[in-house]
Each structure stands twice: as C-alpha cells, then as structure tokens.
Amino acid sequence: MVAVLRRLALASVVANVAIVVSGGAVRLTDSGLGCPTWPRCTDDSYTTTAEMGIHGAIEFGNRLFTYVVGFVALAAFVAAWRRRPRVRRQVLLAGAVLLGIPLQGVIGGITVLTDLNPWVVGLHFLASIAMIAVAYALWRTTDAPAAPAPVPRPMRLLGWVVAAVSAAVLVVGTWVTGSGPHSGDHGAARNGLDPETISQIHADLVFLLIGLTVAGWLALRATGPRVAARAALVLLAVELGQGLIGFVQYFTDLPVLLVGAHMLGACLVWLATLSVLWALHPAPRPEVTPAPAPREEVSAAHVSG
I want to staple 12 with a disulfide (CB 3.0 to 4.6 A). Which of 65, 107, 131, 135 is the partner? Predict the structure, then answer.
C-alpha cells in the first residue's frame, strides 16, 4: 500500500500542475466565459452546447478535468487511510488535497460569476500553487526512511528566504498577468496596474531569487549535504530557463504558446523550490510499529510456552 500511495501522491502532483496548464489554455484562447455561468455551463444546461462553440468546449473540458484531479486525490486519501500502520501526517495531507479541490472549484466559479475579475483569477492560480505544495508534501512523506544529514541553521533560514521570495515572484506574476492582454475574454477587465512597471518589479524579484539561489548553492556545496546542493542547482537551472522564457515572451508581445510555457515553468520553479526546502528541513520519519500478530499465532505461542 505504501508503493501505491507514493504513485498516487505523485499523480496528484502531476494532476494539479496539469490543471494549471489547462486553466491557462482556457485563458489564452479567450474561453474564460465559454461557460458564462456556474455551477451550470449555461442557464439551462450543466454541459456545453453546440451554440457555445469551441470556447464552450474548452472551458467545459477544463471543468471536467477537475473531476480527474479529484479522483486521483480521493484514491490517494483512501490509500493513506488503508495503509498499515496508518501515518497520521499522510492522512491529513491527503485529506487536505481532497478538500482543496471543491474549494478550488468554488474560486473558479467566482471567477466566472465576476466576469473574470483579474484579482480573483490570480487567487485561483495561487490556490493551485498551494494545492501543489500540499500534494508535493504528501508525496515526499512516502520517501524511504533515511537519516537526515545535518544542515547548518543559516542554510535552513536561507531556504525559507528563498521560498518566500519564490512565492513573492508567483504573487507578483499574477499581477503582471492581470495587467496584460490575455484576460480570458475580450470584455474582461484588467487590474489597472501599469504593465511595464509591474513587469519590472516582477523581474527584479526574479533577479533576487536567482541571486539567493546561487548563494545558497555555493554555500551548500561548501557546508551542506549533497542532496540539498543538488536541489539548489536544479532550482537554479529551472529559474534560468523560466527567466529566459519570461524575457522572450515580454519582448515578443506575449505569444500564447510562450505564455502557456511560462505558466508551466512557474509550477516547475515552485516544485524545485519545495525540493530545496524539503532537503533543508527533512520531515521526521514516522515510526513503524509491527502489526499485532494474528490471534491463532498468539494462542499457539501461549500453548508452546
């Protein structure tokens, strides 16, 4: 059951990243109001209709994918519950992922009912980022037990700083999106921020994040465990790739394919950040207690004694 839970937890991470990408496809194809109401697709139907055209199909497809994400989360929760011995932390994390999906659905519904208000759209993305973090934590709790290598306290603090700056990059990134041209629908409002100014702030935070990551990698190579140094190097590589996509898309007037790739890259940066944080703060391994012996074996042992 542990192996099953590990595979399902990883599938949950992938599914939560995939729904971010599918949601991006909805926005980038101007299909955000393809289903103009919620929870129905139209006033008279829960499903898309021929009259809604391709935009209705894209938006409704994204809604259907939520059920896929939910099914995976439910399966992971059942696996965590049925594991013997049961690990409380895994049950709680799996339950949090499962409960987060309907909450995400409600936020998605609010985005439709508010005609794609850019602040609500940004909240919808950030809620997905939180879901990815919880799903990732569930997956990492299924790692094979290993003695954690000692990490100097300054390195652990630096890890939290990197995570905080990474989160800030994502938050400000939603403000950049809310000020840009890809609103999800031609009539959707923008947040009113100056695109050039907020993009510069976003870029400054990215430079700060890269600088902190370089510093962390160099310090970990000298003082920290190898696994943490490797995780920092992977984060740096992902950041550089994501930064390249960001600059190219900015100077090429935001082509939809690059914007979609940038959304995927944002999820990958976040996952790489979580990997560094986990390497620096390994969770305590649960103590595995042996299952009670079957009653027949106990009786036989008593008689032989």
Answer: 135
The CA distance from 170 to 122, in Å, is 10
Radius of gyration of the chain (CA): 23
- 136/193 same-domain check: no
Q: Which of 144, 178, 203 is the last residue of a domain?
A: 144
Task: Give the global pTM.
Answer: 0.88
95 and 189 belong to one structural domain: no
Q: What is the mean pLDDT of residues 137-151?
A: 78
- The verdict on 172 and 92 lying in the same domain is no
Q: Tokens standing for 166? A: 């990474």
> Mean pLDDT throughout 5-24?
95
Question: How far is residue 219's CA from residue 110's CA, in Å, rounded to a whole number?
Answer: 45
Claim to verify: residue 279 and residue 207 sit in the same structural domain: yes
Q: Give the residue from 144, 160, 193 where a domain finishes.
A: 144
